[in-house]
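Input record, target 12 of the design panel.
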């Protein structure tokens, strides 16, 4: 798994790493974590730390590493020098200006926009003269100029490239750093990587990387190029589609198991109907052969729905513990009332889609109620709301034991006495108690609030209607 630590860890990167991890765990293989950080300008220590933190949270572990390419530069220098000595690569002294001019000439002539290879034909004396003059040199791989390079991609099938269209690409920059097209296959060879599972955006680099394998007389790996991850509008995933950074989903209260479950389904499926899967089930069922060729669609709404399914699947005690841990981590003031959280957890487990919804959904049980204006407008729109609240107050005041079942019986009797359906009578009660039209179970909420506080909130609602 070779991420580039150049920014936040987004869902597309994690999906690719997840597929690598699932395949390795399914086949009994070995997971190697490598940070391809040769881009010194964009790579940061913060990004490395973030990546490891995210992987640990998700439970995506590794057997070897983490390796850092910046700590392997001596190996790359020696390997590139060996290729030059064996005639597999050569120094290129062309300046940026010369390369730009050459590209413009080739473009005007309708030729492929690849390097002409003019430094490839320099004699030993010509090279020596340039070295003596102190000209900086990059190192280019001597690519085959005829025939084709082909792979049998597990996902995309047979893919073939004309060698004449590849050009001699740079494997070592003149500043002494390797390019991705060199360091990546070199490390794969050195670390015994047998399967390269990556995004299809890297498919075009494959013939150049295969040439590195050939230069080192190393067997090529098996390739599987994954479909791109798009938004619901079939465009490249971005902020407009919802959170993209994995930490944003964690902060919203998405479970790691739910995110893994969902990302596994972005471009892969077990069958035509199974959606909910645990991590062990994904490991058991995963196969590259069932990866789709067409782009996967990331839908934040579907992720939240699936997360709700995972929340409901938790044993009640585990759900309560997970909720308390989330509130503590997120810095919620509700975390200061752990016993109350434990009391409330059972009545919200069937309702929540994310843990982050808990405070807005059940906050009325922890302190003063805040009434939503739209919800209150619905209460005011019904001229009978005062009557329903009066009936509810009378019914609730007479309950001998303040328990959910007794509350249910009393309110049902009030509906029958007033000749009104529960939906009409319950609306003003729910808004008075919770401040919203959508909330946890009314009977359970009233029980947790207690008789005194419940009746006080109904009185307050009646007062607002009379004002």
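The sequence produced for target 12 reads:
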């Amino acid at each position: 798994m070779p991420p580039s630590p150049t920014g936040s860890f987004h869902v597309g990167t994690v999906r690719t790493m997840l597929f690598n991890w699932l395949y390795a765990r399914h086949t009994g293989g070995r997971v190697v974590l490598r940070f391809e950080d040769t881009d010194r300008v964009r790579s940061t220590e913060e990004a490395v730390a973030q990546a490891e933190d995210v992987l640990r949270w998700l439970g995506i572990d590794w057997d070897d590493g983490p390796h850092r390419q910046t700590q392997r530069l001596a190996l790359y220098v020696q390997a590139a020098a060996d290729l030059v000595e064996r005639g597999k690569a050569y120094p290129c002294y062309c300046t940026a200006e010369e390369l730009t001019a050459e590209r413009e000439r080739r473009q005007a002539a309708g030729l492929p926009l690849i390097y002409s290879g003019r430094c490839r034909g320099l004699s030993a004396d010509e090279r020596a003269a340039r070295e003596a003059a102190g000209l900086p040199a990059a190192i280019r791989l001597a690519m085959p100029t005829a025939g084709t390079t082909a792979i049998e991609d597990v996902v995309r099938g047979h893919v073939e490239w004309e060698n004449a269209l590849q050009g001699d690409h740079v494997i070592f920059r003149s500043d002494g750093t390797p390019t991705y097209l060199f360091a990546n296959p070199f490390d794969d060879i050195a670390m015994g990587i047998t399967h390269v599972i990556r995004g299809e955006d890297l498919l075009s680099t494959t013939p150049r990387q295969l040439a590195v394998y050939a230069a080192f007389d190393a067997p090529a790996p098996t390739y599987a190029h994954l479909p791109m991850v798009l938004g619901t509008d079939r465009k490249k995933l971005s902020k407009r589609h919802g959170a993209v950074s994995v930490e944003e989903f964690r902060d919203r209260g998405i479970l790691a198991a739910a995110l893994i479950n969902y990302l596994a389904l972005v471009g892969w499926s077990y069958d035509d109907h199974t959606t909910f899967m645990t991590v062990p089930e994904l490991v058991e069922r995963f196969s590259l052969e069932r990866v789709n060729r067409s782009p996967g669609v990331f839908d934040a709404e579907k992720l939240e729905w699936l997360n709700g399914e995972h929340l409901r699947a938790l044993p009640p005690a585990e759900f309560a513990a997970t909720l308390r841990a989330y509130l503590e981590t997120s810095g919620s003031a509700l975390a200061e009332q752990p016993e109350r959280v434990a009391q409330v957890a059972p009545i919200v487990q069937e309702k929540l889609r994310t843990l982050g919804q808990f405070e807005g959904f059940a906050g009325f049980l922890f302190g003063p109620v805040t009434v939503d204006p739209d919800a209150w407008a619905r209460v005011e729109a019904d001229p009978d709301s005062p009557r329903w609240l009066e009936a509810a107050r009378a019914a609730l005041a007479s309950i001998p034991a303040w328990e959910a079942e007794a509350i249910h019986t009393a309110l049902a009797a009030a509906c029958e006495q007033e000749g009104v359906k529960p939906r009409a009578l319950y609306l003003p009660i729910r808004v008075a108690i919770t401040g919203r039209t959508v909330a946890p179970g009314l009977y359970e909420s009233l029980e947790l609030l207690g008789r005194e506080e419940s009746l006080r909130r109904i009185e307050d609602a009646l007062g607002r209607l009379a004002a």
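Residues 11-27 form the longest helix (17 residues).
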